[in-house]
Write a structure and sequence with these properties.
With 144 residues, the protein is mainly α. 47% of the residues lie in helices and 7% in strands. The chain has one domain.
């Protein structure tokens, strides 16, 4: 059973996700940096159980990978009023914002525009047909 349906319902279509997140999920081998970026992207709106199941589905995340990601989720959840924990791409705003502590009540802080724009979606020259096929298979086996 794929978590893709739930995640697209929560975050929007993968066609609107940042390309770096899609690369980390389907193409690049996991590193501490890529796992941290994935945790920040999902950690703001997605429960760890759903995110971890999706990571296993996408890149066969190991127990060690999941523990690293879970550590980020736990720490960020416990830091109640820290205004700057990490940066992530906010799907609802279409901008990079600061991930903030769980009880931080101020407006989101939008990060300054980067010299390198955030590329969105499944660019034809970046993602091979195997990624498109994997997404199609995930959609064919939804939990919802």
């Amino acid at each position: 059973m794929s978590q893709l349906c739930y995640l697209e319902h929560t975050l929007g279509s993968v066609h609107n996700w940042p390309q770096d997140i899609l690369r980390y999920l389907f193409l690049d081998p996991p590193t501490v940096q890529t796992l941290s970026a994935l945790a920040a992207f999902y950690g703001n709106h997605v429960p760890f159980s759903m995110a971890s199941a999706f990571f296993v589905e996408c890149f066969s995340a190991s127990r060690h990978h999941l523990e690293l990601i879970q550590t980020k989720f736990v720490v960020w959840g416990e830091l109640r009023d820290d205004p700057h924990l990490s940066e992530y791409y906010d799907m609802s705003r279409g901008q990079v914002v600061l991930l903030r502590g769980a009880d931080y009540s101020d407006e989101c802080v939008v990060c300054e525009e980067s010299a390198v724009p955030i590329r969105i979606g499944l660019g034809r020259n970046i993602f091979p047909p195997t990624v498109i096929q994997k997404l199609a298979e995930m959609r064919a086996n939804p939990p919802c």
